[in-house]
Amino acid sequence: MARHAGVFIVCSLFLLVSCSNLQTGNSGPELLAPIPVYGAAPLVRVKLSKPSNADSVSVKVAKAMLTIDGKRNETAGELSLARNGRQLLVNDQPATSVEIAPVGLPQHFTLENRIYRGRLRVTAGPAGWEVINVVDLEQYVAGVIGWEMIAGWPLEALKAQAVATRTYAVFEMEAARGNGRAWDLDDTTAYQVYGGVGPADQPRQWRETPNVLAAREATSGKIMTYQGKGFRAFFHSTSGGHTISPPEGLGIDSVIPPLAGVDLGEFGKDSPKHRWRMSLAAGEVKARLIEAGIAPADIIRIEAADTAPSGHAVTLKLFDRNGKHRLVSAISVRRALGLFSTNFSAEKLAEEWVFEGRGYGHGCGMCQWSARGMAAAGWKGERILETMYPGSELRSLY
Is residue 281 part of a domain? Predict the structure, then answer.
């Protein structure tokens, strides 16, 4: 995701702005940033969202160094972590910070029945706690590829995903370092879906498959840059044939050539969402638009106002029964109604709305299904990336 939709599907996927900046190449800190040279793969701090929202979690480890408020001891077996106001409880022992660092082999821990590489760090604060997986960047990349892309897809598509994942992660790491936050990315589509190795009791669902690991190894340390800087290498499921710029797809008032949008033809035609149709009850559409603060009255017609060259709507006209219309962001309507993309038409039929469209996701950066189609056609990962992110260059970080 990323799909960061650096913004959130977490919703990350949404807002509005014109693409007038395409001519000037305007790019602020939202998209471009200096990237340092690393001597080796750096550590990434990933906030695990579900555990961070829980009141207690269970951790299992074969052998580890347990650090509680700066004091280190060896531990093994199962640990119970809970939050108690601004304090943590480690097997009922009060603490303010905890770190569990596996040692020996296997060097991983199991959190709530999911296997992760690296270390587990937990800190308490006024708003609760943050459960963070501190992991080597290459291990992180392996923990993303198979969750963001189907692990059985062609190797060259997985290699393109590995580079996009690493590029996106490094950008977010550098952005997070200056904001005082204890983590760099979370594990949701607000950034990139990260699931570690997989469920402890279901090895067949582990995402570190031979293909995933081969894709990571073949691209180890490689990221994309533009004019020597790192950038937010957005990606999404299905473009519908043409990717779009951050202003059009994410509402980010910034654009660079690698993210300006590109015609991908029919490479993604095998996606279930290459073309789609969705029906919603009229009452539900009305309720959702009212709840989102988009349209206070009953809407009888939805038309595109401004449209990107790809066919994605940028703004929409929502008409009420009096013939008056309101101009709104297409992204906000997509989010409110749960539509697959902003490339759609809408028709009201009696007590039902019918939406027909193309694509799935915000539409920026790499289209994963098109990458699959290109790989199936014999394209190498480098060519896929050059096509998806025109003007970008590969660089080795370490």
Answer: yes
**69 in any annotated domain:** no
Q: What is the pTM of this model?
A: 0.90
Q: Is residue 21 part of a domain?
A: no
The yes-or-no verdict on residue 80 having pLDDT over 60 is yes
pLDDT tens string 115-144: 999 999 998 877 789 999 999 999 999 999
What is the domain range of residue 293? 276-357
Contact in structure between 188 and 3 (CB atoms under 8 Å): no
Closest CA to 298 of 323, 321, 317: 321
Is 193 within a domain? no
